Structure to design on (210 residues):
């Protein structure tokens, strides 16, 4: 089986900002896909927003979690010594010996593990230029009241702090999102996770970003 690979290396200079806001990766049936992204920050004045998200497949064609393999890796480094401040790897592997069809998904390992969600996202927000976004999402997360329930939640998300090794104060966040539809995740990104970005960049650019 042929592997589709994509690699990206980006360098963010001091007092600069990079926005990496692509559309979601959607793998077709039996696809084997791998990507790796490395972001090098010159120092703590560099800022970065990275979105890495994927769907369960070409749902309009009845394909859900039917790809063979999906791997996505992200490294973020800072300074001349390239100190690693963040690493994330998503690895999803199906049983290639199974033949999936619309009438028999009982042996679909990924579907059994990940349903009812069809879209997953990782959003990284880091640096001084995006402090308003960081403060907003932390405040929103602190408002969440966790109740024990067996009810399926249409969209769920969590936030972790991201700190450089050169500073004790947190200067970034990592947001993990899972939604039952791609549109639901997209709306959350626009209306919540990236709220205020249009005040930092041009309005037209923000509207085209997602």
């Amino acid at each position: 089986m042929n592997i589709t690979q994509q690699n990206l290396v980006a360098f963010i200079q001091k007092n600069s900002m990079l926005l990496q806001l692509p559309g979601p990766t959607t793998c077709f049936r039996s696809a084997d896909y791998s990507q790796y992204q490395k972001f090098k920050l010159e120092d703590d004045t560099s800022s970065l927003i990275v979105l890495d998200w994927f769907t369960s497949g070409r749902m309009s064609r009845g394909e859900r979690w039917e790809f063979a393999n999906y791997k996505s890796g992200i490294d973020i480094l800072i300074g001349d010594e390239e100190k690693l401040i963040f690493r994330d790897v998503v690895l999803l592997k199906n049983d290639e010996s199974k033949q999936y069809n619309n009438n028999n998904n009982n042996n679909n390992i990924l579907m059994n593990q990940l349903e009812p969600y069809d879209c997953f996202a990782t959003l990284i927000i880091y640096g001084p230029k995006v402090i308003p976004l960081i403060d907003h999402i932390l405040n929103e997360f602190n408002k969440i009241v966790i109740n024990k329930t067996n009810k399926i939640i249409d969209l769920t998300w969590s936030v972790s702090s991201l700190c450089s090794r050169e500073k004790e104060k947190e200067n970034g966040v990592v947001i993990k999102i899972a939604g039952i539809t791609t549109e639901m995740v997209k709306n959350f990104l626009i209306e919540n996770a990236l709220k205020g970005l249009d005040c930092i960049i041009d309005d037209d650019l923000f509207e085209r970003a997602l």
Observations:
- The chain has one domain: 4-209.
- The helical segments are 109-114, 131-142, 182-193, 203-209.
